Amino acid sequence: MLMPARIRLFTLRASSLLPSSSSPSPFSLSFRTSISHSHSAPSHHVSATKTPKISISDTAKFVRTVLFIPPGTDPEEVTDDMILPGSNVVLGPYAGDAKVKEVQFIGSSIRPKDCPKDDRPEFAMLGRSNVGKSSLINSLVRKKEVALTSKKPGKTQLINHFLVNRSWYLVDLPGYGFANAPESARMDWSSFTKGYFLNRESLVSVLLLVDASVPPQKIDIDCANWLGRNNIPMTIVFTKCDKVKNSKGKRPDENIKNFQEVIKENYKIHPPWIMTSSATGLGRDELLLHMSQLRNYWDN
Ligand code: GDP
């Protein structure tokens, strides 16, 4: 039987990349014994569409100092060009096969125990209402109609399973924190979704969507902290990174840095994070590549 991915995937502090670091070698957290080194690095198949180049500010550079080093990658051998732009994710030998060729809507589940019963790897997308989850799902699968799920406040909240390339699931979880919903219609996130996270063996990673155009919000911090405390593997997907700051607000990269500083106490090892924009396509291919390396490792 496969070990749950949450036990097997690690992030490591890439101390070797920090100019003035004298931290101990991250190799003491070795996961390499369980990894076959016979893999040659696959080519990174991404969709032909180019994502715009982003400029990485000093703030973003600072945040990149805590890297996500995937299994099969020697932290000592990480070079700058192995880091996915706009993220802290290092691309390792398991990356590849990131194209979305086919998507099927499999069904909606009312309860976690009604979810499809097979062991294909899955990624669960979670975030505050209005964070841009439907837009991101549509951008990932390049189909406008896919994420037209019941997202209106007060409607029954469902877990929607989409099967991608007949091999892995993208799961649309109910949004939390509907600002305008009556109290009775607010989702009881704790009982509804926590069961899913804690019991879903095939969950490779939660994709926690966080709006980068606003300062860190308590509800998102609570969610990230809960996932951290429960050792649920998580990738933070920052959305709306195309939005420039308004007169009072901070820039997306400043919000991103602040969010991570707030949550870091709940993480022994820092989670992977990535900047995206469904409006410009920023981060789309990078996110798919990151998911491919988690998935391919999980599959092995
Ligand atoms: P959901 O409630 O999380 O599914 O959010 P939606 O995908 O419906 O998006 C909520 C609002 O944010 C809509 O008005 C979108 O047009 C807008 N939005 C979503 N993604 C982006 C983005 O990347 N950039 C910008 N500027 N707006 C976005």
How would you portray this structure in words?
The protein is an alpha/beta fold and 300 residues long. The chain has 7 helices and 7 strands; from the N terminus they run ααββαββαβαβαβα. It has a 7-stranded mixed beta sheet, sandwiched between helices. It is globular, with a radius of gyration of 18 Å. The structure holds guanosine-5'-diphosphate.
Features:
7-stranded mixed β-sheet; alpha/beta; 300 residues; 7 helices; binds guanosine-5'-diphosphate
Contiguous helical run count = 7
Main β-sheet description: 7 strands, mixed
Going by helix content, strand content and strand pairing, the class is alpha/beta
Distance between the termini: 11 Å
What is the number of E strands? Answer: 7
Uncertain ranges: 1-54, 182-187
Q: Percent helix among the residues? A: 10-25%
Whole-number radius of gyration? 18 Å
Beta-strand content estimate: 5-15%
Shape: globular
Assembly annotation: single chain
Bound molecules: guanosine-5'-diphosphate
Mean pLDDT over the full residue set: 75
- String of helices and strands: HHEEHEEHEHEHEH
Strand order of the largest sheet: 1-3-4-2-5-6-7
